[in-house]
Amino acid sequence: MHYRASTSAQFCIPLVKAPLGLTQVPVGRPVAHCGGPTGHGDTAAQSARNPKQGQALDQPGDPRIAKLRRSIAKLETAFFRVTPTTLSLGVPEIHRHLPGPGLACGVLHEVSAASYGDAPAALAFLFALTSMALQAKPGLAMVVLSQRACAHWGRLYGHGLDRLGVDPSRLMLVEAATDKEALWGIEEILRSGVQPAMVAGALARPVELTASRRLNLAAAALAIPLALASPAKAGGESAAATRWRIGTIPASRDRFGALLNPRWRVSLERCRHGRPGTWFVEWNHVAHRFSLVEGLADRSSTQGAGLRVTG
Amino acid sequence: MQALVLVAPGKGGQRIVCLNRAAHAGGLSLGELLSNARSKVLDLQIRDADPAADRDALYKLAFWAMRYCPGVAVCDEASGADGLFLDITGAAQLFGGEEGLLADLERRLGSFGLHPRLAVAGTAGAAWALARYGKRNRIVLAPGTEQEGLKDLPLAALRLPEEVLTVLRRLGFRRCGELIDQPRAPFGARFDAPLLSRLDQALGRAPEPLIPVVPPPLYRAQAQFLEPILQQEHVLEAARGLLQSLMQDLARDAVGVRLLRLLLFKLDGAAVSLELGLAAPSRDAQHLAQLIGLRLYRLHSEFETDFGFEAAALHVLTAEDMPERQNQLAIAAHNAAPEELARLIDRLQHRLGAGAVGQLIAQQSHIPERAVRHSKGFSLPKIARSSSPPRPEEPLPWAPDLPAGERPLLLLPRPEAADVVALVPEGPPRQFRWRGVRHQVAYSGGPERIAAEWWRRTGEPTRDYYVVEDTAGRRFWLFRAGLYDRESAAPQWFVHGVFG
């Protein structure tokens, strides 16, 4: 009944490094992307050299590619759904880097902080995802917190969650003393037969390969988004489908200079069947959606006095 | 064996309150002065009596005795200490009749080094009298024959106060039988209430409620093992068997378990007690066994050091109505059944700790740290509420515009002091140092002024909150405690929260 870290994995999941092996996109190196619907940095340059291959990736609707992807997914996962469910991020530019139109449900996604001080931002991004999941589906969101995950930064604050667009009354918080118990709790939730709208976790250290495989297996039968936030330490090998790294950038301002919405530097570090990328996104908690922003916001108030009106 | 006595201060000096067999053989008796005893027995061992430890030991034994029956009471001071009442109604046949039970009890107590005096009777008073003043040990008195059985016993067997006994002796009474035959009216006029009521209790004419050490369960099941069991799996298997037999009773009465106690009786006379609370009434043996397994897992240190368990009992302490319900159709199953959620919460709570599952509840307050409560325990939404009227303490809704200002995602448990540089004392911060890191302020929004509620006269200073963004884009919630020049000369700054 208890969670064991050293268990024999029943399924061996081969890790595909390059997406489909069709293009030689350098994996692991974040590709800068600063607005513009088609520009892909390195990829754009590459597709100019080799137009045929670039085209193949830029058209996700290609039936051959979709068929290939499905057959690979079938080989790799124990449970395969004909129509994979996804949690839409609402940004087509990001979706183009992911295998489907949004975050795939039923697999693990990792959210980690870019540096120590960005841990709250990573947690906020996790709750932004939770907010979208709650919007998309009825039911509870279950959040499992390891005690040391955010002990440095305080406890979750209901009104703050409310400001991020999460309805705190639809949250079930589970607090565990250690990461091991938190992982047990997540797995228990996934295997319980309860259908929450989202399962989120916050851990004190990055999830290990075995643990992430177990979570993948437990989540595979469900159409629930599953995301884990972990601190800034370099993550080792894990079976997560994506790893997002979140950094802070100055928030957006209204025309009087007051802060409006949080903005993050979101880099997709690893993505199975997809490509990495980096974006600057703004979270709108009222509309429950992300939007891409220009690389730098208006920094005029940085230099000026604290309360200068910039309108 | 060396003579050993326990002494306590009494009239005229230290007096013996307890003695062993060797001391008794040496001619000592209870209540004797210690100085006399020393002169009678040369190598006398003397210890101070410890009534609190005696009482603890007696309670421990009472718990152990629950392996025979659930109703075990400890004799109180009025009825003479150092004894246990076991209500063996319906339990004797499990041990081969009343004689069998007594023999088993004596054998087991003997193995702990105790030499009990045992008796069975229809009333507590008669059993007490026979155990202490009976001609032999292990007397079994058939119900209705109390008068016969008590006839030859001395008057002390009636549990009477010492002064009443003295008067009775002076009047020439020696045996209980002489008292039983007397007319009641003169006695009622001559003596206080205890005499007749004790007599009636012993003869079964008046009720004598026993106060058990733990309240008796509503339902129970128990099992004895041929060999002591040591392993967690075996205990779980035994519990599973007990659950199966309990569930039939529960299903008959259409109730479900809310509070369950598993008692494991050790070979050395101790008992381990596990209590399991459930989020919703349940009659699912598999689920309950799972919960017991989770608790046993947390208890594993108990299993390593001991001799093993020789018996187990399962008590249902709280049960709630739980009508039969039709299983949901597979088609509608995607909408999770509330029972599933309740079971999940049970499992999480039993493995991770009682307060592990919680939720955030809005409170009627503007003070940030009082505006949200972390509740321990999760109230299941929309489960049993549909039929019951709304409760008065229904949680507040999370209104989108209350409070009006920005609020951080993470709130520090207590505000942490920060060194702030500001241009003017009541102005926004320009730069601050918190936890040894210097932050240059790029933007600050505010102030939002929050004062303590007027009815709390604690002298809390007024706070001016600022949302501060540093040059790296990280946002903090700072406040200045105390109004400059009115509440304090040098207001202090604190960091209270972090935005995502």
Please describe what this structure looks like.
The complex is a heterodimer of chains A (311) and B (500). Chain A is of the alpha/beta class and 311 residues long. Chain A has a domain at 86-297: 3-Layer(aba) Sandwich (Rossmann fold). Helix content of chain A is 28%, strand content 20%. Chain A has helices at 42-49, 51-58, 63-76, 92-95, 119-136, 158-163, 179-191, 209-219, 300-303, and strands at residues 86-87, 103-104, 108-113, 141-146, 155-156, 171-176, 198-202, 226-230, 242-249, 263-271, 277-284, 289-292. Chain A has a nine-stranded mixed β-sheet, sandwiched between helices. The longest helix of chain A is centred in the middle third of the chain and has 18 residues, at 119-136. Chain B has 500 residues and is of the alpha+beta class. Chain B has five domains: 4-49, MutS, DNA mismatch repair protein, domain I, CATH 3.40.1170; 52-203, no CATH class; 219-321, Dna Ligase, domain 1; 357-400, no CATH class; 410-498, no CATH class. Chain B has helices at residues 21-25, 34-40, 51-65, 97-111, 124-133, 146-150, 162-170, 176-180, 184-190, 193-203, 232-253, 285-298, 300-305, 338-352; strands spanning 4-10, 13-19, 45-48, 72-74, 84-86, 119-120, 139-140, 219-229, 255-266, 271-282, 309-321, 357-362, 372-376, 410-422, 429-434, 437-450, 463-470, 475-481, 492-498. In chain B, a hairpin with a 4-residue loop joins β17 (463-470) and β18 (475-481). In chain B, α5 (124-133) crosses α10 (193-203), α11 (232-253) runs antiparallel to α12 and α12 packs parallel to α14 (338-352). Chain B is elongated. Classes of the chains: A alpha/beta (311), B alpha+beta (500). At the A-B interface, α5, β5, α6, β6 and α7 of A face α12, α14, β12, β14 and β16 of B.
